[in-house]
Amino acid sequence: GIAAIIQASRLCHYLLVPMCTATLFAIFVSVVAAVFVDAFPSGPPAFACLNQQPFHSKGKMPVDAMNMYPGIAGKEQFSISVSKTSWSVGDTLTVTLAGVSSSTKFAGFVMKAVRASNGYTNTNLGPLLGSFACSTSAGMTVPPRYFSVYAPGGENNCVGHSTAGKDMYSSVTCTWTAPATNEGPIMFSATVVIEFEKYQTEIQSAIIPNSAGPASFSLGNDTLQSMPTMFGCGSTKTCALYPPSCDTRGGCRYGVLITPMPASNQLLFEIFGHTFDWLAVGLGDSDEMDKLEVFSCGYNSKRSKIRLDFGIVADKCVFPLYRSDITDMKTRIDLGTGDAASLPVQPNRISCQFVRPVDATFSYYKYNMSSKSSSLISVTRKMSGEGKFVILGQGMNLANTPNIGKHTHLPLRSPVRLTPMGNKATVYFSGIEAKVQTHGTLMTTFWLFLCGLSIVVARHSRPVLTQKLVKKQLWFLIHVCAMVIGYVIALAGFIYILVKQGEWETDSQVHGIFGVIGMSLGLINIIAGIFRPHPGTKHRSIFNRLHRWNGLLAMAFATVAIWLGATFESLRPEFRFWAVIVLAIYTGMQIIAMILFECLRIRAVRNKKLEGAISRRFELTDKSTESVAATSSEPEPKIKGKQLEHVSEGWLVAYACVFLALAAAFWAGLWMH
Fold first, then answer.
1. CA torsion sign, 568 to 574 to 575 to 579?
2. Which of the residues 7, 131, 252, 493 could staple to 443 if both were Cys, CB 3.0 to 4.6 A apart?
3. What residue intervals traverse the membrane (predicted)?
4. For residue range 471-514, what is the model confidence (pLDDT) as tens digits?
């Protein structure tokens, strides 16, 4: 009866705990989903007027570009019609945003007027123009919401919906009042939200010229006639290049060149790299991907126009900026042999330049989730004095959105701050984050070198390393010290990456699982070794077998984790190529060494048995002289090799040297790429 009660209680525990956990998890997901769905209850935030991107998340945090729903593809379902084919200063135009079909409805929108100069798709290069006054359209129960974005005069230069999915519009009609200055050709741009998961961006009107002719300003949007030259790097320019094997004479695939212009207190930035859709250079006070001032250039999502973006990275989100202090922007795209759908191909080579003040003050709109409002934050970024770290990223666009997509490789990072107004140096980008380099070095110190050495010493060198230190044989001390010290080093690397990363990334999930299993098995082996049975007891042989196979299994899981980690697609191809070569040699050599040492051990055990047989056979006693005489004529069995030796000191030293060299080769690739 008692056994049945215990069994029933265990069953209840196993059933109820997962059920309660699942229920709590479901409640948590529901709350989080509700927060995101109702993230902007009074309409879009102010910064949506710049990049026109709905921040509609898939329920993950943070709400960054990779967690948002993409726009819909295919033929545009909406259009913008304008009452006039030209405009003049102070003029009024009627602008209508509607579906191409009368049955097409939409739940939200953002619309603005911008300069249409030179075909740039990004409209942050010029101010938001004029002011809107919209009538209540069909299906609109609440008047639209107006914004005055970077407009000191308080103009309503952007308009959007003012409710969160409570109205369904068939159209929106607004009166637009033109600015008091000639801004050249203009166009109206909008994003329409159909449902929470569906929206369409880059809805643009026809270009509307000014009746007075072209404007007097210029965005400097000329095509870059030639690639940036590295002549002057280290003397008149500050340069950050990649890979480290290149030099200013050639061979560099990526680079950021900064030339001071003292007369105007400005800096000329030139960037180049091999990528498919975009390049981006970030300036920050650390090599982390946060609190960066970002400039990006390349193609738009439809690969039909050149894009130029400015933004500030804060809280893992990119907030768009309007930068009137950036001038002389030029871009050149030399097409490669294909796109990512047909990899491997030669990507495009994109080159861009822009001129930026040495010290710049700018503002951006940040949305406060608690107060449900946008605030204008002012930031000063200085390239004078101690300078900035420079980060160079590249990648592809998110389909059907104004956003750039995820990096195709980890961004390149300058090892030091660049000081173009002071010491002009040539440095080389690091293609791997410092936290990844540190994590990889600590983990491989144990798993590629010390762990294998510890196993080989304990398994194959006992008869050789019999000298005693502190009352323990030398083989035992080497085994314990290599295992414990190495595991502590690996544990430091494990904890370090968890703290630095701050979250479990889906990209490295399988790598992490294998790593956790390897570390867990290693810890079990160390704890079991502390509480091992004494020699000669009945459970000692069982412990020996489990201890040995558990250690080998831990090493196998860790090796798989290292393979997975070293071949991430986000890592630079130069490092992945190097890592595959080193790890292939390591894996092959480790298998060969284990088989060879096991063969030596089998031979030594066999020789030991033969020695015992010979001793018994030729044992001389006073009572068996006749037997000895009878058997003395038989041939003596041959014993190959050293009788009691498994792996000699020479084999052990060779093993240690080979695998230390392979680990060092891996470390060199990790820190040099």
1. positive
2. 493
3. 12-37, 440-458, 474-499, 511-531, 552-571, 577-600, 650-672
4. 888 889 999 999 999 999 999 999 999 888 776 766 678 899 99
